[in-house]
Amino acid sequence: MNNLVVFDIDGTLIHLCDKEDQAYVTAIEQAMGPIPELNMRWHEYRYSTDSGVFSEIIQTALHRPPTALEHKAVEANFAEQLKQTEYRPIAGAQHIFDAILAIGWDVAIATGAWKSAAESKLGSAKLFRDTIPLATSNDHYERKDIIQCAVERSKEHYKRTDYRTIIYVGDRPWDLKATQQLGIPFIGIGEHWQQIANGAFYHTPHYTPSTFTAYLETL
Questions:
Q1: CA triple 145-149-154, angle to 5 deg
Q2: CB 51, CB 68: distance < 8 Å
Q3: Residue 87: which region, alpha, beta or left (left: phi > 0; alpha: psi -120 to 50)?
């Protein structure tokens, strides 16, 4: 039976960008007008995804959910903002997909970003591939459901009936939480995991493809 590695994008495949928070707020206010006291502490929102945060912002400010057209308008505004941003890959990320595929594992991406933003970021970092299944916050608000969507798309894309092992690779506590909700293993990317992992899961500050795949082969 086959195995699957699912990657987050921001902070996992590409470096985080400081300008992105303001670009997101600008995209919302271009479409919706000024939002008083907009909370930019994203970890305090119920869903740590572009669509989920936007929905909660509008529900709080206007006491109604955003319409589908409003979602599309803000997503388009945000994608336009990101065209001015250059994204850099995490060290080794440009080789990690091929290394994983070479040992017979499948690869997918599940991100809390909107689809257009995800493709823009991956393209800027020279990581975009239309041959890798992608699930985004256009599919679901909640990260665990986005991961599950990526798994189902992978089954269809790679012609698999099921997976023996599914691993999610991420950089934030909400990534770890999603894997705990799904009951799947987690790999942490970033030096910060060294202080908090306590041996509970594999983590690395960046990608060394041979080391990463050697770990996968122990599973």
A1: 150
A2: no
A3: beta
Question: Is 119 within 8 Å of 128 (Cβ atoms)?
Answer: yes
Residue 219 to residues 42, 105, 141, 204, Cα–Cα distance (Å): 34, 12, 30, 17
Instruction: Report d(CA 23, CA 204) in Å as an integer.
Output: 29
Q: For 91-129, write each residue's pLDDT tens digit.
A: 999 999 999 999 999 999 999 999 999 999 999 999 999
Does residue 4 sit in helix, strand or coil? strand
Specify the CATH number for the domain of residue 117: 3.40.50.1000
Residue 187 has which token pair? 């790999």
Do 148 and 208 fall within a single domain? yes
Domain range for 65? 20-82
Domains contained in the chain, number: 2
The shares of helix, strand and coil residues in the chain, as percent rounded to the nearest 5, are 45, 15, 40
Place of tokens 């987690």: 186
pTM of the model: 0.94
- H/E segment holding residue 174: helix 173-182
